[in-house]
Known about the structure:
By secondary structure, the chain is mainly alpha-helical. It has one domain (about 20-395). About 70% of the residues lie in helices and about 0% in strands. The chain contains 20 helices and no strands. The two termini are about 35 Å apart.
Amino acid sequence: MGCVAFTMSGICTFSQAFSGFSNSLVILIFSMLIVGDAMMATGADWVVGRFAVNISRNNERVFIFVAALVSGLMSMWMANTAVVACFLPIIASVSRTSPNMTMKNMTMSVTFGAMYGGSCTLVGSTSQLAAQGLMGELTGIQFEMFDFLPVGMIMFASFLLWEQLIGYKLGLRLWGDRQHEGIRYEQLKSVSVDIEVTGKNRKRPIFAAIFICMIVSFIFKLLPVQITALCTALMCFITGCTNPSEAIRRIDWRCVMFLACCMGLAAGLAATDLGKMMGHAIITLLGSAPNPLLFFAIVVTVVMFTSNFLANATTTVIFTPIVISACESYGFNILPFCMGIVYAANLACATPFSHAQITMTMVAGYQFMDYVKANLPVQIIMLALMVAFVPMFFPLR
């Protein structure tokens, strides 16, 4: 609707408003969604999930650590929602069959592992790609594939440590007397997966080889990121790891459409100078020479608060043009500020509304205040880590 409005009002041309559909980032997200579909089609995701179950040896706290770590590593390369959709039935199965493990204790922690892992690479979440597209349209600056990794891994490791030392016990106090209340098993896919069929799937080793080649290409920059992703998707089709017609039907087209339209919105915003107007308003409020660290802290705090009530990618699209304009006026380095926006939008977790994958955890029967009480402390810790470490790796000036 935004792109159509820009076109009909004459703010920008049709070609400008819908230029995002030819943007290489759209090809990137589309290709990575196909790779994620191939992982599910070959049953590789289920194998990884069962590995987490087996290594935990019926110990709930060990399972939380291993499953959160594995879900985070998976989310670096595929959609968070797909990873969570893989683990929820596994968690439900484990909680039903083991008297020592309950769904409420495990679901939120494992899901948040996927959320933190998805913040470590350029392709880990739609927010990174939305910011990348907006930065490219407005400034020509681009993230590298692993720019998010150093600070992302620090926060990911901190989250895992938090869960083991404080988060697990905090959860027991919050919902200890209602462990089995409100769980909606009927909304979970059947966990009685045909292990014999998936266990004999001969495409798994092929997919594993393709996946490893993709990661190697990403790490050593053998090809541009978009070409690597597209080649990987094509190889998944050619080798039969996933069926093209079925993959096209299963993938989440909302991600593709949202990212493509974001590029058009960026063109419209550039044509209206709205970002510059908001940037000037910030300058009027904060003065002509604010401390860059203070400005960065204000930005990430406001973005994280907002993202608790809006989808993370939407929050990124709203704030990125405004902050870019302010940074250009102040002479600040745009890249770390946009990186802070992405981290803050992705890691907001004090309500069930901030991410689709967090909303999915409501099947475990959590109440609204459970999210606030359990996650607000760790959210504050992550804010402090962003302010401390992002400027350390990427100078603000």
